């Protein structure tokens, strides 16, 4: 089933452009391994943002970010893609706040 959410599609395209994939070679095929992202709190610390700033960049409430950090809930697929982009380019968060 194809996802038609424009934000998801945009972030997916950005992810393909920005992220470097590590290539794992085995004898029969070449596979792309997605870049792992740190926990939300660690990523927020890496980017140097407060909870409220991180929430604005992510397009969610501060309570959602607190819930992610407490591991009560998990970020959506779209939020995880944006987190991968932030991890690949930590200054992107500050640029998005401008």
UniProtKB/TrEMBL annotation:
Which segments cross the bilayer? none
- Answer whether the UniProt record assigns the keyword DNA-binding to this protein: yes
- Which InterPro entries does the annotation name? Cro/C1-type_HTH, HTH-type_reg/antitoxin, Lambda_DNA-bd_dom_sf
Instruction: Tell me yes or no: is Transcription among this UniProt entry's keywords.
Output: yes
UniProt-listed SUPFAM superfamilies: lambda repressor-like DNA-binding domains
GO function terms (MF aspect):
DNA binding
Which keywords describe this protein according to UniProt?
DNA-binding, Transcription, Transcription regulation
Q: Give every HTH cro/C1-type domain span.
A: 41-93
Superkingdom, natural source: Bacteria
**PANTHER family, alphabetized:** MERR FAMILY BACTERIAL REGULATORY PROTEIN, TRANSCRIPTIONAL REGULATOR
Designated name of the protein = Transcriptional regulator
Q: Which organism is it from?
A: [Pantoea] beijingensis
């Amino acid at each position: 089933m194809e996802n038609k959410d424009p934000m998801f599609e945009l972030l997916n395209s950005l992810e393909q452009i920005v992220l470097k994939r590590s290539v794992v070679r085995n004898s029969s095929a070449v596979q792309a391994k997605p870049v792992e992202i740190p926990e939300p709190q660690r990523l927020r610390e890496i980017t140097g943002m407060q909870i409220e700033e991180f929430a604005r960049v992510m397009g969610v409430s501060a309570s959602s970010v607190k819930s992610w950090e407490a591991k009560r809930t998990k970020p959506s697929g779209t939020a995880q893609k944006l987190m991968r982009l932030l991890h690949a380019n930590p200054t992107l968060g500050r640029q998005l706040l401008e």
